[in-house]
Amino acid sequence: MNVDYTLYLATDRTILGARSLEAAVEEAVRNGVTVVQLREKACASGEFYEIGRRLLAVTRRCGVPLIINDRLDILLALDADGLHVGRGDLPLGRARALTPGKILGYSVHSVADLRHAEACGADYVGIGPAFPTGTKPDAAAALGVAGVAEIARAASIPCVAIGGIHAGNAAAVKAAGVSGVCVISAILGAAEIDKAARGLRAALG
What we know:
Number of helices: 9
Shape: globular
CATH architecture: Alpha-Beta Barrel
Number of domains: 1
Order of helices and strands: EHEHEHEHEHEHEHEHH
Number of strands: 8
CATH superfamily: Aldolase class I
Strand content: 15-25%
CATH class: Alpha Beta
Distance between the termini: 23 Å
Radius of gyration: 16 Å
């Protein structure tokens, strides 16, 4: 599947304040976001499904893929576009077997992780954290631009850098050889989501 990973947005409702997730995501997509991941770490299944259903209506209308974080059941129930898993989630090989025709992403922190992702049929990897980040307190040590570049150079599939990325460092990360960057607070935590998304796209070239 041909996917534009340039500006990948992962969601976090806790930083939106009174704003609705669907409206925030639509504003972000209309101003440059190319992929959306629904990331819900503390959410009952029924609520996760309902949030996903509403968000999928937005992403389908706007013509960008919706990727579900961790939850294969929610992906299948929604018939969303893809699934993203990490080492503590459903084994990647099983995820691949159960998601024919869907986008499959895997979180990596090393070249060894990358090789596993490639061997199991992942479509892309998320490399991170690039920089320290507050949205994932249990994240591994930051890789820095050099660490991201080392993994990206070794990859045969698209790479997306994640973790502490914003308009001020996005260009340096993109120059490390990744296909795109993933952000959360740099867009959803901004007072003006449209300007934040446009600023990131401009920085990414």
